[in-house]
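Exercise 7. Given the encoded structure of a 263-residue chain, write a plausible sequence.
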């Protein structure tokens, strides 16, 4: 490898995020036009010193690595940030991060405002489950956490619960969401006032009904959540788990069809 090429690879590695680099970032690092930087990355990919993730995004292979062997991104969260921004890590992946569940999920759940063709995607051996929202929905209750040397957006424990109450499939179904809520309310992370504040900004009418019912069923001695849920009770009926076709029994005080057992 020529000295100039080694210098360029080192510059690209320094400019990368978790080893990942866009054409625009490469252009800035090498002080070259985008088209030239893109061609340079393509050449490095052909020679094995970079790996194309998708159009405009590459993974730099460490200089000490064997270019004949495939490599992958060390952290799917960092990869998700580069692939699907604007976005945050949410649902079951955020629940794992905050210790709300011990269940392991194969895919990383990403809440994104980026247009997507499918709910599922696989890049570099990493599976992603995508849930699209409006850009304005990417802020309330979303915080940054360190993943190695990178800061990545993830939903707080409270926003994670609210998202999963709005769309239970993000938490692996209502039964699992109920377990997550119980874990939260019995942990030192518990902050009911903060949970209610996040819900006031992000919860749907159906989410308030699910929250009220689950809080009453799982934590009957804690009335703060049921009181708040009653204050935000909307018209119409909802299903406890919208993924389950049967109606179940109607709980009139919550305007909710209870179609799964959460106890």
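Solution.
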């Amino acid at each position: 490898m020529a000295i100039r090429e080694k210098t360029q690879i080192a510059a690209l590695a320094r400019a990368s995020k978790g080893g990942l680099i866009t054409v625009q970032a490469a252009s800035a690092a090498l002080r070259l036009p985008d088209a030239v930087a893109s061609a340079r990355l393509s050449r490095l990919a052909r020679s094995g010193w970079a790996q194309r993730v998708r159009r405009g995004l590459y993974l730099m292979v460490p200089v000490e690595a064997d270019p004949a062997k495939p490599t992958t991104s060390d952290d799917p969260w960092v990869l998700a940030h580069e692939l699907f921004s604007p976005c945050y890590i949410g649902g079951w992946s955020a629940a794992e991060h905050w210790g709300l569940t011990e269940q392991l999920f194969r895919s990383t759940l990403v809440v994104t405002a980026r247009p997507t063709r499918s709910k599922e995607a696989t890049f570099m051996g990493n599976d992603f489950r995508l849930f699209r929202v409006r850009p304005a929905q990417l802020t309330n209750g979303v915080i940054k956490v360190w993943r190695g040397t990178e800061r990545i957006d993830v939903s707080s424990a409270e926003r994670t619960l609210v998202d999963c109450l709005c769309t239970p499939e993000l938490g692996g179904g209502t039964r699992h969401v109920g377990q997550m809520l119980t874990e939260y309310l019995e942990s030192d992370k518990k902050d009911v006032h903060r949970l209610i504040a996040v819900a006031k900004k992000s919860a749907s009418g159906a989410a308030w009904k699910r929250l009220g019912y689950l809080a009453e069923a799982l934590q009957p001695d804690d009335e703060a959540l049921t009181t708040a849920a009653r204050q935000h009770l909307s018209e119409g009926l909802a299903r406890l788990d919208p993924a389950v076709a049967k109606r179940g029994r109607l709980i009139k005080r919550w305007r909710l069809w209870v179609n799964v057992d959460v106890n």
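Remark. The first strand starts at residue 20 and ends at 22. Students should compare their own answers with the one above.
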